[in-house]
Structures are given as structure tokens and as C-alpha cells.
Amino acid sequence: MVKKLKGMRDILPNSIKMWQFVEEKARETFEKYGINEIRLPIIEKSELFLRGVGEETDIVQKEMYVFKDKSDRDVALRPELTAGVVRAYIENGMESMSSPLKLYYIGNAYRYENVQKGRDREFSQIGIEFFGSSSYETDVEVILAGINFFKNLNITDFTLKINSIGSTESRKNYIEKLKNYVEPNLNEYCKDCQTRFEKNALRLLDCKQEKCKKLNENAPKITDYLDTESREDFENLKKALTDLEIRYEIDTNLVRGLDYYNKTVFEFVSNKYNIALGGGGRYDKLVSSLGGKETPAVGFGIGELRLIELCISEQENQEFEEKLDLFIANIGENTKIEAIKLAEKLRSKGFKVETDLMNRSLKSQLKYADKKNARYSTTIGENELLSKKIQIKNMENGDIKQVDIDKIENEIC
Ligand code: AMP
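^ thats the input. predicted complex w/ adenosine monophosphate below
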């Protein structure tokens, strides 16, 4: 048989409820902030990500699914969704809409990664992007939307980490200081960091290898090199979070993996697994660098898989249990269609109802009802059709009641 590719995922009916639950909560939460959904292509020109995510990032260098289409175009499966949202924002003239323009997305992304728990090659990201406002209050609202999303999922065991990476200019100055600090010991750093030193030195700071972390312990801190505006915004952000009683940690090594960020960056980190559930930040230069007008923007992306594998699956499973309101069993050829008719009538009133489609014996039909967690069951035979009366069994406590066939819904609601 042909098997699926490594790192791809079949989401089967027994876990789909959790995915639907998370997506529902995302929609519910974000719509309260006036954020509207956007859906975008999974495949884009590779150039979008080279320019949008950054040529020197691990994502573009090592992880992107790139190929030629039949017209010899270089195309890529999106490795993240922000670059696509920005492209759509510019291409569809959304720049002229009133600001801030607030968008959210739920969609798959693809990265050729080492597969492990919480890390697949196909994964879904849930994110929001606000365009057109440079105020720190916008950063606050974006962070709040993320926190409330977690709250609505009953996820509390995480830490909000924040940092500011300043403007392009102040960062340049800082990177020079950082390189001066690293250079004397460069050959003690891991291979990746040695490459980063040349190409993307800021990322030396978020290397996960212990020896590199240790070497970085006394590295200069980016927050000591911020330009005035970034420093003020960062101070205001911290004050606002404190006022709103949102707990946070400052992590001056938090620089995020993508090139496009400036000023505020943040991550939501699972305390138990010490892994990022999501993260984001401000990216004031991305719209213009992809051909749009200068437009400040801020957003985040959260990994749906990590929420589900690491957080939701630990919650009470009851919420995700499939329940049927009624199973209608039948005895005798003539009753089959009557059972379907009755099921249709009740479905149109909002009940979840099933009937036998397998020509099973009555005993097996009722066994199936049990397996499907039916709250009630009933059996239609010739007698019931004639008398228009039916027995309803409460499957939880075994109680049986005789009711008019037309009034079933009063019993099962
Ligand atoms: P990033 O775009 O790398 O900042 O990722 C944002 C979030 O997407 C992360 O915090 C993860 O929750 C999720 N994510 C990123 N890569 C993967 C992956 N390979 N598998 C599952 N989730 C991922």
C-alpha cells in the first residue's frame, strides 16, 4: 500500500473534536476583537518567502518545500502564513481600508523538519495580523487576543516572554557588539552558530545547545542598545501589561527565527514542555519590502498541533466525547424507511440521530447504539407504526417510557 509522507498527518474522527474545539475557540475569541478571517493559498511563489521570511533563516535555507511547477515557476509550500497574508493585503488593495485592518487565519504550513512530538512537517498555524498601527497599545491588544485564546481553551500553564529587538538601525549597532563578544570564542560554538555568526548573528542568541547558551551568558543585551522610540514603546508595553495584570518575563535572548521582526517580539512558552506554543511580534518593514506602502504591522502565529498534543489532550476528555441523541432501531422490512423518516424529522429539529444501515439483528443494533454513546434508543416495528406509540429507553439509567411517536422530541431534549 502507499503510505503517507513522513511528518504529514491524518486527523482521524476520534480526535477531530479537539481540532474543531480549538478552531471554534479561535474564531470566537478573535471575532470579539473585530478580527476577520482570511484564507489563502497553500502554495506561493518561492520568492515571497525568500523576501518575506528571509533568505538566511533556517526555514528558507533548510526547511522549505520548493519545487518547479509545470510552467517552470519556482514555487513553495508556505512554511508560515504571515508572508502570504501580507502579499494578499497588498495585492487586494487592503491598504486603503480603514486601519487597523485585523485579520486572522487558520491553515496548514509545511516545513521539512526533524519530526518529533509537537513538531511535524505539516502543521496548522492559527494566527492574527494587525496592519496600519504602530502604537504599543496595538501590541498589547495582539498579546491579549493570544492570552484570551489560551484562556478560552483552559490552557494556563504557559509563560508570556517578551523582548524588544529595536529598529533595523539600532539592531545593526547591537549586532556589531554581539559579534565582538562572540568572535574570540567562535570556534567553541556549534556549527550552526558559526554559520549564523556570518549570516544572521542575532540568531546566535536563541541557539538551543547548552554549550552555546553558556557561552552567551555574558553577552551584551539587546535591550541596552535600543533606539529611543523602541525603548519607550517597550517601557509602555511593560507598564500596560502590568496594569492589565498580565504576567510576563523579559527574555533578552528572544529574537524569533524570522527576519522580518522589529521592536516588540514575544512568545507563549509551555512551562511543562519548555517549548513555544506560539509567538510573534512587530514587523513594520515587511509590507513595504514586499512592494506595499510603509505600513506598520504586528501579529502572532500559534501552532495548533502543539496546543492539541501538549495541552488540550491532557484536559478532561469528556468534552470531546461524541454523543448521539437517539438511535432508532427497527424490526421488519417495512419499518426501515419509516425509521429514516423519523430520523430526518428529528435531525431537522437539531437532534443527532442514527438508524440501522447494516440490516443488523435488533440485539446488534442496540449494541451499536451503545457504542455510539446514544442517550436514548427506540425501536420501530409494525405495531408501533399502527399504534403511533413508541417506547423510549434512557440508555444511561435504563428507564423506559411509552410516548406518542409525534412527541419524541419532548423526551429526548
Ligand atoms: P514560528 O513561525 O516558527 O514562530 O512558529 C510559530 C508556532 O508554530 C510555533 O510556536 C509552534 O507552535 C508552531 N510550529 C512551528 N513549526 C512547527 C512544526 N514543525 N510542527 C508543529 N508546530 C510547529
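The CA atoms of residues 30 and 145 lie 7 Å apart.
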